[in-house]
């Protein structure tokens, strides 16, 4: 048995054991029961990822030319799918029996956050709040659904009904231009067009761009009698980006929506998203999706298909930069974004949706509407880009063309340089408003001179935002050559080499009325890092500690898949927020601020008010433990929050 198969067998055995213990009611108390159920849910999530990996491997094999060896399904062998699904189903049944909280009528709470819950820093609500917390990091929920996911679907359906009724009699909030490119898609085009014709929101125009079809698309479109449907035939097949750009040039609407000819919408898609955008003043809005899969031969919209899952989560800019976590068929946006940021990149054969959304959400955080209003079809047609174009070459081109800027020109240590790739995306982020200088940066106990030099060089290159750098050097590692960065560096000697507590004690009396940034010697800041931290602290008066993105280079193994279940490991990872630390992903939606339960010492801002009340972290042996204790004091003694901001980015080189 291959190692991956042994791993799968072990997880299956774990699941069977957990199901047996819950079924036989072998638990000591309610806390033990909750622990068992939590383990059960984690194992189920892992097994569902195994199923996804097996299915992806089979899909890849189906596309290979005859005679070429197909890759081995990475997780389970032949026949394993059914066994895994049976076990997951049994786990769901057991979890239901032990009284997992059902989702009831929470539609009202989705329109107005519970203010009372916000008064308790660190509180991890259950119910739909728990779903939002987990979907922030893992927006795709495959079938079979867990009881929690079933409950979340019920809530989203209830919210959809509530909003649909609310907006039914509303006047138009502006003309919507629906862009629909098509190329030899008569097997699915009629259903897509019909889903637009059936919209309850009537103020729309549909622009169907025929990119050189030869399957009778022209006859079908010419037969359309609704004057709102505009048929724009192209003389030759120029690709989906060219087709969409041609439609955008013809669009007359205040809003733009996109519907591929193999997908479709619920009848209230436009009504809910347009009116919700108008109410909230949003310029880009998205909803949840049903994901459907057609197995075997392509047979059009009437072919047998089954529900594959749902996709929805609060917007996560960092995750969006790691992989395409938002589908364009679930999005509407204001026309002005096209005028300001341009249309589709015609140089990319694939990932054009991702590239466009990265640009559009760089300066504007989208509004997330938790309703399942869009239907995404997998396998309904044979020429989907996911079947005809490999993703890795397109990803490389995306990085080269759009994401090529480095945070600054640095001479990285040799062991780091070999892992560094040109994928930082901070250049796509809107720079926060410039904050006043005045922070004291504290670097304690550097152990690697080459990393320290890079750290200081990056600080100097990020602008004149640092009042001074206090460098606590108990190992006498740093000579004068390392301090030629032009920064105001003060070296502080400490008798106990390597002791974090001693380092904090040595500099405590040197800290005046200033904000303090704890920075590890392996951290590399990027332009705008300080502005983002200061912006978050100013936006939330009860912010006790503020952490930026903690970005590690591809291939770094600091957290496991259960903590970042949806991220791609071959790309940069932001490990500042994980499934273990996220508390409230909607703490401050306009800036994307997230409440967390723990921050790391690679980079963290201590506002001056917190320093005045608590001093510097000094309890605990290691920097990580000392900061964890300090964070608990901040939350439970001062009643303040630990905050993460995606608008500040720092690399952690270790």
Brief sketch in words of this structure:
By secondary structure, this protein is of the alpha/beta class. It is built from 21 helices and 21 strands.
What does this structure look like?
The chain is an alpha/beta fold. It folds into three domains: 3-100; 140-402, Spore Coat Polysaccharide Biosynthesis Protein SpsA, Chain A (Alpha-Beta Complex); 426-652, Spore Coat Polysaccharide Biosynthesis Protein SpsA, Chain A (Alpha-Beta Complex), CATH 3.90.550.10. The chain is 37% helix and 19% strand. The chain is built from 21 helices and 21 strands. β3, α8 and β4 (229-233) form a beta-alpha-beta unit. The longest helix has 34 residues, at 30-63. The radius of gyration is 26 Å and the shape is elongated. 45% of the residues are buried.
Count structural domains: 3
CATH classification class of the largest domain: Alpha Beta
Instruction: Tell me the β content.
Output: 15-25%
Examine the secondary-structure arrangement and name the CATH architecture of the largest domain. Answer: Alpha-Beta Complex
Structural class: alpha/beta
Assign the CATH topology of the largest domain. Answer: Spore Coat Polysaccharide Biosynthesis Protein SpsA, Chain A
The termini sit apart by 36 Å
Low-confidence blocks of residues:
1-5, 25-31, 70-78, 97-119, 384-388, 404-408, 421-428
Largest sheet, strands/sense/barrel:
10 strands, mixed
Rg over CA atoms, rounded to whole Å, is 26 Å
Number of strands: 21
Helix content: 25-40%
Write out the CATH superfamily name of the largest domain.
Spore Coat Polysaccharide Biosynthesis Protein SpsA, Chain A
The shape is elongated
Query: Helical stretch count?
Result: 21
Q: How much is the average pLDDT?
A: 79
């Amino acid at each position: 048995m291959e190692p991956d198969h042994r791993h799968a067998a072990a997880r299956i055995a774990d699941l069977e054991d957990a199901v047996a213990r819950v079924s036989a009611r072998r638990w000591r108390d309610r806390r033990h029961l909750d622990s068992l159920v939590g383990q059960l849910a984690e194992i189920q999530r892992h097994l569902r990822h195994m199923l996804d990996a097996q299915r992806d491997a089979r899909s890849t094999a189906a596309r290979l030319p005859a005679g070429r060896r197909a890759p081995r399904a990475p997780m389970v062998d032949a026949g394993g799918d059914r066994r895994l699904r049976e076990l997951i189903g049994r786990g769901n049944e057991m979890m239901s029996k032990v009284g997992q909280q059902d989702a009831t009528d929470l539609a009202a709470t989705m329109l107005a956050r519970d203010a009372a819950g916000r008064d308790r820093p660190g509180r991890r609500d259950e119910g739909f709040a728990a779903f939002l917390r987990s979907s922030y990091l893992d927006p795709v929920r495959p079938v079979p659904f867990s009881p929690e996911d079933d409950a979340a679907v019920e809530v989203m359906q209830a919210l959809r009904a509530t909003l649909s009724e609310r907006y039914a009699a509303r006047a138009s909030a502006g003309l919507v231009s629906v862009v629909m490119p098509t190329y030899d898609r008569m097997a699915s085009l009629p259903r897509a067009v019909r889903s637009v014709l059936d919209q309850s929101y009537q103020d729309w125009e549909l622009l169907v761009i025929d990119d050189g079809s030869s399957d009778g698309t022209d006859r079908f479109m010419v037969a359309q009698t609704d004057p709102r449907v505009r048929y724009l035939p192209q003389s030759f097949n120029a690709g989906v980006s060219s087709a969409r750009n041609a439609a955008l040039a013809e669009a007359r609407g205040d809003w733009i929506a996109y519907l591929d000819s193999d997908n479709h919408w619920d009848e209230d898609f436009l009504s809910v998203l347009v009116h919700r955008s108008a109410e909230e003043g949003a310029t880009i809005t998205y909803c949840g999706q049903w994901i459907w899969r057609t197995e075997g031969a392509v047979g059009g919209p009437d072919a047998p298909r089954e529900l594959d899952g749902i996709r929805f989560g609060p917007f996560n800019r960092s995750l969006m930069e790691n992989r395409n976590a938002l589908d364009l068929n679930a999005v509407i946006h204001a026309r002005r974004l096209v005028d300001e940021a341009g249309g589709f990149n015609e140089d990319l054969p694939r990932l054009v949706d991702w590239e466009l959304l990265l640009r559009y959400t760089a300066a504007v955080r989208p509004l997330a509407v938790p309703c399942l209003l869009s239907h995404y079809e997998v396998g309904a047609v044979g020429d989907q880009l996911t079947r005809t174009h490999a993703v890795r070459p397109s990803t490389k081109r995306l990085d080269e063309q759009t994401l090529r800027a480095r945070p600054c020109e640095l001479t990285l240590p040799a062991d780091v340089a070999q892992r560094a790739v040109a994928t930082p995306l901070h250049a796509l982020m809107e720079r926060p408003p410039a904050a006043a200088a005045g922070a004291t940066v504290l670097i304690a106990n550097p152990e690697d001179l080459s990393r320290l030099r890079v750290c200081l060089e990056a600080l100097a290159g990020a602008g004149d935002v640092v009042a001074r750098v206090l460098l606590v050097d108990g190992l006498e590692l740093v000579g004068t050559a390392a301090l030629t960065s032009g920064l105001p560096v003060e070296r502080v000697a400490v008798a106990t080499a390597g002791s974090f507590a001693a380092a904090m004690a040595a500099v405590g009396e040197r800290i005046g009325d200033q904000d303090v940034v704890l920075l590890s010697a392996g951290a590399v800041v990027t332009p705008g890092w300080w502005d983002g931290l200061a912006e978050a602290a100013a936006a939330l008066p009860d912010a006790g500690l503020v952490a930026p993105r903690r970005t590690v280079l591809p291939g770094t193994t600091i957290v496991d898949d259960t903590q970042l279940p949806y991220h791609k490991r071959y790309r940069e990872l932001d490990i500042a927020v994980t499934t273990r630390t996220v508390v409230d992903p909607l703490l401050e939606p306009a800036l994307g601020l997230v409440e967390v339960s723990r921050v790391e010492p690679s980079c963290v801002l201590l506002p001056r008010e917190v320093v005045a009340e608590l001093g510097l972290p000094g309890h605990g042996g290691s920097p990580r433990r000392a900061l964890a204790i300090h964070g608990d004091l901040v939350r439970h003694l001062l009643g303040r929050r630990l905050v993460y901001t995606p608008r500040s980015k720092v690399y952690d080189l270790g």
